[in-house]
Specification:
- By secondary structure, the protein is α/β, with parallel strands linked by helices.
- It has one domain: Dehydroquinase, class II (Rossmann fold), CATH 3.40.50.
- It has five helices and five strands.
- The two termini are 19 Å apart.
- The structure holds ligand CA2.
Length: 160
């Protein structure tokens, strides 16, 4: 039943630099799943969680920052982000995420802590609700479930 005036929660999904190459290069590290497949999987998961997702990928820090700043006026209530290499370098993205004050879940395909030490530090982790790292494309689905749970929506498994 659709109640008049009811709007689904709306989540902004951000993919950072080079993630457009997913499935096309370096499958040994990042797998064979393409970014389009991840976005389709998130849209399906969002449907079962009764929320909406809008996904963007950018290789440009400023464009990611503009999307973060626009989130409140776009009526987005949470942010799921794989900031790629900007995770380890970008104080600007961290400040922007903290500045808009929306709940953030950080996700990574690879397990950062099994990789080079320069990937062990995240500028985003301290301002995020939490971080999911190492489950491949599944990290995104788990991240979306975690964000939905934080926003008060039960995950499908807990409503069975
Ligand atoms: O594991 C992750 O999700 C990362 O955020 C991926 C970033 C990396 O810099 C982070 O440390 C961890 C890199 C994304 C690059 O993606 C590519 C995909 C295919 C081919 C080349 C790069």
């Amino acid at each position: 039943m659709v109640v008049s005036g009811w709007l689904p929660l709306n989540i902004l999904v951000l993919h950072g630099p080079n993630l457009n190459l997913l499935g096309l290069r370096e499958p040994g590290i990042y797998g064979f799943t393409t970014l389009a497949e991840i976005d389709a999987m998130l849209a399906a998961e969002a449907g079962s969680l009764d929320l909406a997702v809008v996904c963007h990928q950018s290789n440009h820090e400023g464009e990611l920052l503009d999307l973060i700043h626009a989130a409140p006026k776009n009526n987005q209530q949470g942010i799921l982000i794989n900031a790629g290499a900007y995770t380890h370098t970008s104080l600007a993205l961290r400040d922007g995420l903290a500045g808009v004050g929306l709940p953030v879940v950080e996700v990574h395909l690879s397990n950062l802590y099994k990789r080079e030490t320069f990937r062990h530090h995240s500028y985003i982790a301290p301002i995020a609700i939490g971080q999911i790292s190492g489950f491949g494309a599944e990290s995104y689905r788990l991240g979306l479930q975690a964000l939905a749970h934080h926003l008060g929506l039960a995950s499908p498994s807990s409503s069975a």
